[in-house]
Amino acid sequence: MKNISLLFMFFLLQQMSIAQTKYPMDSVLFSKYQYRNIGPFRGGRASGVCGDYKNKQVFYMGATGGGVWQTKDGGSNWKNISDKYFGGSIGSIEVCPTDPLLIYVGMGENTLRGNVSEGQGMWKSTDGGKTWKHVGLDDTKHITKIVFNPKNPEVVYCAAIGHLFGANDQRGLFKTTDGGKTWKHVLFVNDEAGAVDMAIDQTNPNTLYASTWRVKRTPYSMESGGEGSALWKSIDGGETWSEISKHKGFPKDTLGIIGISICPSNTDKIYAIVESKSGGLFVSSDAGETWSKQNDESKIRQRAWYFSKIFVDPKNENLLYICNVEFYKSSDGGKNFSQVGTPHGDHHNLWIDPEDGQRMIIADDGGAQITLMAHAIGAAIKISLPRNFTG
Predict the structure, then answer these.
(1) φ, ψ of residue 332 in degrees (nearest 5)
(2) Is residue 256 within 8 Å of 229, Cβ to Cβ?
């Protein structure tokens, strides 16, 4: 045993001596090498996402400080397409369903944190994001949703929060009928309540729903809810509106933020996730005339001002998704929700392909992630994170 120990010590000392030996090195050999970052990458907080309706590999992500990014290979590589044109704070992105080269971007993040950054109105591209043109709405500051009329790409709606740290009148719902040349202020409640979410009936685009939200920030506090927070419906293309949050079954106490979604397969069925003491997930089966509560679990409505987004599968009116700290899925119309695993937490937005409910892109505090098999994955999503940035 003693001989083995001595042999081991001799071997160890020999290796240390070899390691300390200096060998001549040709300086030219490594002169061309440079360090580079090989990942893994983190996309940073994102709030706006959308996919190309025709090319299944093309998606867009709007970051809260990094501008608009595009992938043409399903998320393997991303390129910034906005840096030379506008700032980094993005609230919403929408690609025209009938013309994939037509894209609108609303500035000003919709995640209204203490370190929130505002934007510079609306931008439009007619060449798939190669170039951009400013099309107004500068003083809206935070554009949270953009919706195309499915039968006329010249008609576009947008929901705007307005000034977050003070009152202003450039908030509510805006409409253009000439491709962004002019905008009409079609829904205004008061100078402290802006529009936060909206949905359009794809079978009858004269029918729209919109939610308004009184929200105010100071450097040290957040006020969510109060006069002006409500749910609205229009049946004349957004020209006039009636409040439907006063209808039977809707919460009667003070309302805050409201997320809204129309079932594409049954447009009389509407889901709303409501911030209030008696809030939760509500459903209407008669186009907003009456409401019933489906679920009031805290997990789907916690920290409501930061989340409160609901989405419905294009073919199944009972298949729902809710964005919150975790990402939740319901297969029974919202009575029960199960968590879907994603690479990051704090989920803010989701886009579902209207022709293929398995194809999605989600926005969260880690960037954007993509799946092409949402139904098959069950309790876990296989999603590719934004990486290999270029441009």
Answers:
(1) -130, 35
(2) yes
Predicted local confidence at residue 39, as pLDDT: 58
Q: Is the bond into 40 cis (omega within 30 degrees of 0)?
A: yes
Cβ atoms of 153 and 176 within 8 Å: the answer is no
Spatial separation of the C-alpha atoms in residues 86 and 84, rounded to whole Å? 6
User: Among positive and negative, which fits the CA dihedral 252, 321, 324, 108?
Assistant: negative
> How sure is the predictor about 388, in pLDDT bands with cuts at 50, 70 and 90?
very low
Q: Which residue has the tokens 């010249």?
A: 154
pLDDT of residue 16: 55
d(CA 315, CA 80): 33
Angle at 273 between CA 269 and CA 274, to 5 degrees: 125
**Residue 305 near residue 224, CB atoms below 8 Å:** yes
pLDDT digits (tens, 9 = 90+) for 136-165: 999 999 999 999 999 999 999 999 999 999
Query: By C-alpha distance, which of 281, 257, 279 is closest to 270?
Result: 281
**Token pair recorded at residue 246:** 């006063």
- Determine which helix (DSSP H) or strand (DSSP E) holds 262, and give its type and residue range: strand 258-262
**Any bridge partners for residue 321, and if so which?**
311, 329
261-284 pLDDT, tens digit per residue, is: 999 999 999 999 999 999 999 999
For Cα atoms 169, 304, 229, give the angle at the middle one, nearest 5 degrees. 35
CA distance 285 to 294: 12
Enter the pTM of the model.
Answer: 0.87
> Tokens at residue 370, please?
């993509």
What CA–CA distance (Å, rounded) separates 217 from 210? 22
CA dihedral 148, 154, 157, 160 (to 10 degrees): 120
In sequence order, the β-bridge partners of residue 234 are 208
Nearest to 207 by CA among 168, 236, 245: 236
| Cα 322 versus chain centre, distance | 12
